[in-house]
Amino acid sequence: MTIFGIGTVVVDHVVELPRFPAADTKVAVTNDWKQVGGPVPVALSTAGFYGSATSFLGRWGNDEHGRFIAGTLRVRGVDTSECAANDEWSTGFAHVWVDSITGSRTIAYSRGQFPIPGADDIDENCILTAGRLQLRSKLRPPCRRTEARSFWTPVRSNREWTSCCPWLTC
After folding, report:
1. What CATH code is carried by the domain that includes residue 47?
2. Domain extent for 115
3. Residue 5 clears pLDDT 70, i.e. is over it
């Protein structure tokens, strides 16, 4: 079964701190790392890690962050053939501060600059041949019928997939 996902992808720069600093103060970083972020690509990457076939539709700039995303998803076994990168676009990123004592986090982000994929950008075959569909509907679909949440839904055959993703039929 293939899992097909559509969503926003960013590069997270995670910074672990012993505590959040007060305003206008400094605190030494305990640990830091880069990772792919965004609910859909993280879910697909995790499913791929555990052996599921996965495919992703996303966009990013042809820049350092974009190359990191493409390489990481490929290493994790996520099919990125439906993705697009462009020299004129910028890739989203986030700075994630994590308090190592409480586990709380604070995030500053930029979603990047690129055209939002619409219904015309989606190869219907990718959805019809998938067993599951992972969406993050904050992608501003052509109509605003879907709620801003991420969900898994089974895909049905014979064009019935539109009932699980109504914005694709607008």
Report:
1. 3.40.1190.20
2. 2-169
3. yes
